[in-house]
Write a structure and sequence with these properties.
single chain; mainly alpha; DNA binding; PDCD5-like_sf; PDCD5-like
Length: 128
Amino acid sequence: MDDPELNAIRQRRMQELMAQRSPGNQQSAEQQQAQEEQKREADERRQMMLSQILSSQARERIARIALVKPDKARGVEDFLLRGAQTGQITEKVSEERLIALLEQINEQTKKSTKVTIQRRRSVLDDDD
């Protein structure tokens, strides 16, 4: 059952497959490093822009919000950056203005919960 020729073919095929995977893995690892570097650079640019837009107290407040709700902090940062790019924000945002903005965003995104209770009629209940 063990054919030496068949085993030799299998080994060659395995070596070919391993050789094909190695350069691909190196390339994907390099691509991942490049993507991580781009992401890091974009984050640095973002932080630099935010430091130009926000006062130090406002940056601290957003940092505290990011600890609890990172997605909400990211949304506020995006909103501020868009406002600065479109020219709506021309001066540094103070902590008081940031608080007002946060309250405004909370009002807009406030989720209302509605609870409805449906009582099931029991077989033993009398409707008479």
